[in-house]
Design brief:
Pfam families: CcmB (PF03379)
Largest sheet: none
Oligomer: single chain
Function: Required for the export of heme to the periplasm for the biogenesis of c-type cytochromes.
Protein name: Heme exporter protein B
Subcellular location: Cell inner membrane
Order of helices and strands: HHHHHHHHHH
Shape: elongated
Family: Belongs to the CcmB/CycW/HelB family.
Distance between the termini: 25 Å
Structural class: mainly alpha
Length: 222
């Protein structure tokens, strides 16, 4: 079973990095959105520091949605998804592998870029470390929850708009806790409780999302 899952991981990683244009879209969108905010609200350092965490998190959520639609799209269109279901491999584990590939290919580069953008928005060192912690814990939650919606809409034409409408309200609690953690760090206050809440949501998603993704894919195939 591990060899099958590893083969799926290697195949999906190779396909993801072969499609470089689609791979760069979330990164370019992430950088452009954050770069435009200082032009709109002014270059005042205090203003940028206040809105910076929220701007980075909103940009990360929107950027993740750009690459979310293709999570199962190509496999659905070429019939690979149906073959995976017929192969007997647990779809819950297969979905976890595909979510990991999506996080590594589409979201991890955004986290790597975040130090430069944090300096651009005048975040302090304490604020950046809090932001990095929330991104590392919270962005896998984006991929897991998003994959459930992708599984439900994979068979629809132009399902990207519907996907955004389904997911954006769901991500609001994560956005609130993540920005609150960075705001607490800015005031030299402990933010472990905020990280604990985000971690609890991630653990719940890890327990339930793979089963929900597998069920959603079966519904889409039927």
């Amino acid at each position: 079973m591990m060899s099958v899952l590893m083969a799926i991981f290697k195949r999906d990683m190779a396909l993801a990095f072969r499609q470089r244009a689609e791979l760069l879209q979330p990164m370019m969108f992430f950088v452009l959105v954050i770069s435009l905010f200082p032009l709109g609200v002014g270059p005042g350092p205090d203003t940028l520091q206040k809105i910076g965490p929220g701007v980075i998190w909103v940009a990360a959520i929107l950027s993740s949605l750009l690459g979310m639609e293709r999570l199962f799209r190509d496999d659905y269109q070429d019939g690979s998804l149906e073959q995976l279901m017929l192969s007997g491999a647990p779809m819950a584990l297969v979905s976890v592998v595909k979510v990991c590939v999506h996080w590594i290919a589409s979201i991890l580069p955004l986290i790597v870029l975040s130090p430069l953008l944090a300096l651009f928005l005048n975040l302090t060192v304490e604020m950046y470390w809090a932001l990095l912690a929330t991104l590392l814990i919270g962005t896998p939650l984006l991929s897991l929850v998003g994959a459930v919606a992708v599984g439900l809409t994979v068979g629809l034409q132009k399902g990207g708009v519907l996907l955004a409408l389904l997911l954006l309200p769901v991500f609001v609690p994560l956005l609130i806790f993540a920005t609150a953690a960075v705001d607490a760090a800015a005031m030299q206050l402990p933010y472990s409780a905020h990280l604990g809440l985000i971690g609890a949501m991630l653990l719940l998603a890890l327990a339930l999302a793979p089963l929900a993704i597998a069920y959603a894919l079966r519904v889409s195939q039927s």
